[in-house]
Write a structure and sequence with these properties.
Length: about 425
C-alpha cells in the first residue's frame, strides 16, 4: 500500500506539521518529515487536518429505495464531505431489524469502500412500535450494532422505550430517539408558530419534541441506561437536555447542520419561492431564537454532536405540492461547510471544537473504534484535509448523492474538503473521488 506524506497541514487549525501515513496508521507527525521511497506527497499548505468525520445519522436508503440512494452513492457523498464513517439508519425496506439486514448493509459498505458503514438497528420490529426487534442478535452480528433507533418514527410507547433502554445495557448500546409525540403532530406540516398561522399549514409544536425528550431522559435515568436524542430542534429541548446533564444522567444529543442555519420563515419567502418543499423536513425548521439556542448549546457542549440526517428523496417525491412532499434534505457534502459558516465564522467554535463534535464524540457515542482518534502517531489514518478559504456555490447537480434535495442551492458556502483518507488510503484527492 502506498504511503502518503502530507506536508504542512494545520492540525485542528494549529501550527503546520507533516503527517506520514503508512500501513493504515499515522506513522509520524512532525515538522520537516522526509518522504520514504515510493511515498506520494500531498501539499497541504493552508489546509486544516481533522480526524475523519463520523456521522451518527445517515439515511442510505438501501435496501429498498435505491432510486433515492444506494450505499455506494451515499458513501461517495460521505467521503467527499470528509466522513470516514457513517451510521446508516434502519428505516429501509426491509427494515434493518434483524442480524441479516444489518449484515447486508454492513457488507455493502465494505464492498463500496468509500467509508465505514455502521448500521443502526431498529428498536421495534418493522418500526411498528409494537414489539422489540432482535437487538441482541444485531449487536452480536458481524455489523456489531451499538446504536438502535426507529428514526423516522418515535418510540412513543413508554413501556417499550423503557424495555429497549434496559435491554441495550447488556452490550453497551444506546437508544437514539426520534422525539416526536405522534398525537401532537398528526398531519403536521411545519413549525407551529406565526408563519404556519399565516400560511395555513398545520403546525408542529415544539412541545411534541420536548415532551418526549423529557420523558426519555427520566426513563434513561430510571433504568441507568444511555439515551441519545436525535436532531434536537428547539430551545426548550436544549433546556431539558441541559437539566438532564446537570443531574449526571447519561444523555447525549445531536443537532443537524440545517437546524443550525435555516429558519421556518423560508417556507413563506426564499429565493427558491414560497411553499418550496425543499424546506420540508422532520423535525421542521424552527425560529431564529431556536437556531441561536442550538448554536449556543453546541458551543457549550449541551448538544454533543453534529449529525447530518442526510435524507435523500427522488425528484418526484420532493418536487410536488407542499402537503404531498416527502420530508428531508441531503447533507453529507454540505455538513462541514454549514458548520464552518454557522459555528466557526461566528466565533462560537474553533476547528478543535468541530473535530470533537463531528468526529471524536460521535465515534464514542456509537462505540465505534478506530475513528475519532487524535491525529497523532499510532492512530488509524482516518482523516480529512479542508481548505477553509475556499468558497463554493452549491449546485445540486454536482452532488455525488443520487438525490438532489439540498436546501442550499445557489448559496455560497465556505470551506471545501480537499482530501479524505480511510486507514491511510485516499478516498478523496484534490476534491474528487480517488
Ligand atoms: Zn428523525
Amino acid at each position: 500500500m502506498t504511503a502518503y506524506l502530507i506536508k504542512g497541514a494545520s492540525i485542528l487549525g494549529g501550527d503546520p506539521a507533516d503527517l506520514l501515513l503508512s500501513g493504515g496508521v499515522i506513522a509520524a507527525v512532525g515538522v520537516g518529515l522526509t518522504a520514504p521511497a515510493g511515498a506520494e506527497t500531498v501539499d497541504a499548505e493552508g489546509l486544516v487536518a481533522l480526524p475523519g468525520l463520523v456521522d451518527l445519522h445517515t439515511h442510505l436508503r438501501e435496501p429498498g429505495r435505491e432510486d433515492a440512494e444506494t450505499v455506494e452513492t451515499g458513501t461517495r457523498a460521505a467521503a467527499l464531505g470528509g466522513f470516514t464513517a457513517v451510521h446508516a439508519m434502519a428505516n429501509t425496506s426491509p427494515v434493518a431489524d434483524t442480524a441479516g439486514v444489518v449484515e447486508q448493509v454492513w457488507r455493502l459498505g465494505q464492498e463500496a469502500g468509500h467509508c465505514d458503514v455502521r448500521p443502526v438497528g431498529a428498536v421495534t420490529v418493522g418500526l411498528a412500535g409494537e414489539r422489540l426487534a432482535e437487538l441482541g442478535a444485531m449487536a452480536d452480528s458481524a455489523a456489531r450494532v451499538r446504536v438502535f433507533s426507529d428514526d423516522g418514527k418515535c418510540v412513543s410507547d413508554a413501556v417499550l422505550m423503557r424495555r429497549a433502554l434496559e435491554y441495550v445495557k447488556a452490550f453497551d448500546g444506546v437508544i437514539a430517539q426520534h422525539a416526536q409525540e405522534p398525537r401532537l403532530t398528526e398531519d403536521a406540516q411545519m413549525n407551529e408558530g406565526a408563519v404556519s398561522g399565516r400560511l395555513g399549514l398545520t403546525g408542529w409544536p415544539a412541545v411534541a419534541e420536548e415532551a418526549i425528550i423529557a420523558r426519555d431522559c427520566l426513563l434513561a435515568a430510571h433504568v441507568g441506561s444511555r439515551l441519545h436524542v436525535c436532531h434536537v430542534s428547539t430551545a426548550g429541548s436544549v433546556e431539558i437536555i441541559r437539566w438532564a446533564k446537570s443531574k449526571g444522567w447519561n444523555v447525549t444529543a445531536e443537532v443537524t447542520p440545517h437546524h443550525l442555519l435555516l429558519t421556518d420563515d423560508l417556507v413563506e419567502a426564499s429565493s427558491l419561492g414560497a411553499y418550496n418543499p425543499i424546506f420540508k423536513v422532520n423535525p421542521p425548521l424552527r425560529t431564529r431564537e431556536d437556531v441561536e439556542a442550538l448554536r449556543a448549546a453546541l458551543a457549550d457542549g449541551t448538544i454533543d454532536v453534529v449529525a447530518t440526517d442526510h435524507a435523500p428523496h427522488p425528484v418526484e417525491d420532493k418536487e410536488t405540492e407542499w402537503g404531498a412532499a416527502a420530508m428531508g434534505m441531503i447533507g453529507l457534502e454540505t455538513a462541514l461547510p454549514v458548520v464552518q459558516l454557522a459555528m466557526i465564522e461566528t466565533g462560537l467554535l474553533d476547528w478543535a471544537g468541530v473535530a470533537e463534535r463531528m468526529s471524536a464524540t460521535p465515534a464514542r457515542i456509537g462505540r465505534l473504534s478506530g475513528h475519532g482518534a487524535p491525529l497523532q502517531s499510532g492512530s488509524a489514518a482516518n482523516l480529512t484535509l479542508v481548505d477553509p478559504a475556499a468558497r463554493t456555490v452549491v449546485d445540486p447537480r454536482a452532488s455525488a448523492s443520487k438525490s438532489r434535495n439540498t436546501p442550499y442551492e445557489g448559496l455560497t458556502l465556505p470551506g471545501k474538503v480537499v482530501a479524505t483518507f480511510l486507514r491511510g488510503r485516499p478516498t478523496v484527492l484534490e476534491g474528487k473521488l480517488a
